Amino acid sequence: MIVSKKLSKFKEISHGFFNNKGGCSTGIYKSLNCGPGSDDNKTKVIRNLRIVKKKINRNSKNIFLLHQIHSNKFVFINKYSKYQKKKRADAVITDIPKLPIAVLTADCAPLLIYDKQKKMIAAIHVGWKGAYKGIILKVINFMIKKGCKKKNIIAVIGPCIAQKNYNVKEDFKRKFLKKDKKNKVFFKKRKNLIYFDLSKYIKLQLKLMKITNLDTINIDTFPKKNNFFSARRSSHLNHDDYGRNISLIMIN
Fold this sequence. Notes:
Blueprint: E1 13-17, H1 42-57, E2 74-77, E3 91-94, E4 101-105, E5 109-115, E6 120-126, H2 128-132, H3 135-145, E7 153-157, E8 167-168, H4 170-179, E9 187-190, E10 193-196, H5 198-208, E11 213-216, H6 231-236, E12 245-251
Parallel strand pairs: 2-3, 7-11
Antiparallel strand pairs: 1-12, 3-6, 4-12, 5-6, 5-7, 8-10, 9-10
């Protein structure tokens, strides 16, 4: 489990970015695959989620997961919320203690947010689509409406694919430049190939929102040696599926 130095200062919350180590799955899912949407054995995924929960707090409620759809949609959970089934969204916000909220990634960026005064947390799955559609802006604006203040917010960008391994097509770049010509700073060309910097793009969006208390876990999920599940690496290896990394945060 990897933690943020900035979030670790606050004893009233627990958090963690988990890689693929320490679980019970086998084969291409070895070993801490936390993705119920994967083709892995469901019993093993449930056991893996229990392992993660135990690491965070054995007395907590079950980990709250979303049905992620690469959108700008979010869910807010308060004491009145009742969800019988998984919500189709890519971010979750709550102020409920002992409820671990989590996102699953496999190259996309997990973004954990905490307001130290309001005691409100958020977990966001930020792929390029969600980032492009403004999911970060929507989540932070909602938190502000609920009484959070930008000066009290800490945001942590978790492990995701690095620019050197994020090769994209020309139409991908055109899409971003059409939105804002300044977005060209997130692209590099090397040997006639285009590479996109997802983490840098997320960081700028946070800064434009005037969120200055930032932390970035600079670990590339693509290289096998870093022990993270990677959709892109799995595709290169011609695997039919891939495991999911889990990142979560909880108010103690």
